[in-house]
């Protein structure tokens, strides 16, 4: 039996969509914005398996409730309710897909990378990602469970 090209196309489309499924996340204090969607790619299932030596794409769609000239990202690994700072290559939100200045009522797509270094321990933890405005108030804050693995 020869596979139908349409069926093959639909199956491939479904597989690609599964990789881009919005994540279930916990909002951890978004004050000056509201999160519409969080995507980590690739992360087909939760908790996200983060492989050492790999970089993951982060895409957060949010609506701003305020005006701000700029924004800054802060990322943490949360273990036993303690936030350990997690360096990212570009903390400036205006260099991460956001058109600045940020305007009230507009939606934005924040894009960044999460590099997982080889020296990180293999451990389960919570990734906490914040984006703050000029007044150090949270445009968004979200958490997801991850597992760092070799």
UniProtKB/TrEMBL annotation:
It comes from the Eukaryota. Residues 1-20 form the signal peptide. GO terms for molecular function: cholesterol binding. GO terms for biological process: cholesterol efflux; intracellular cholesterol transport. Its main location: secreted. Belongs to the NPC2 family. This is NPC intracellular cholesterol transporter 2. It comes from Falcunculus frontatus (Eastern shriketit). The gene is Npc2.
């Amino acid at each position: 039996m020869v596979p139908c090209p349409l069926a093959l196309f639909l199956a491939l489309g479904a597989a690609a969509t599964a990789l881009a499924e919005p994540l279930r996340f916990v909002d951890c204090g978004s004050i000056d914005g509201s999160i519409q969607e969080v995507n980590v790619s690739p992360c087909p299932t939760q908790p996200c398996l983060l492989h050492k030596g790999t970089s993951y794409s982060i895409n957060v769609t949010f609506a701003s409730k305020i005006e701000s000239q700029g924004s800054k990202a802060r990322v943490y690994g949360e273990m036993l309710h303690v936030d350990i700072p997690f360096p990212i290559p570009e903390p400036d939100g205006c260099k991460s897909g956001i058109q600045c200045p940020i305007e009230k009522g507009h939606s934005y797509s924040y894009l960044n990378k999460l590099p997982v270094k080889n020296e990180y321990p293999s451990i389960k933890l919570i990734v906490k990602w914040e984006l703050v405005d000029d007044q150090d108030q949270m445009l968004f804050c979200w958490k997801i469970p991850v597992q760092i693995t070799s």
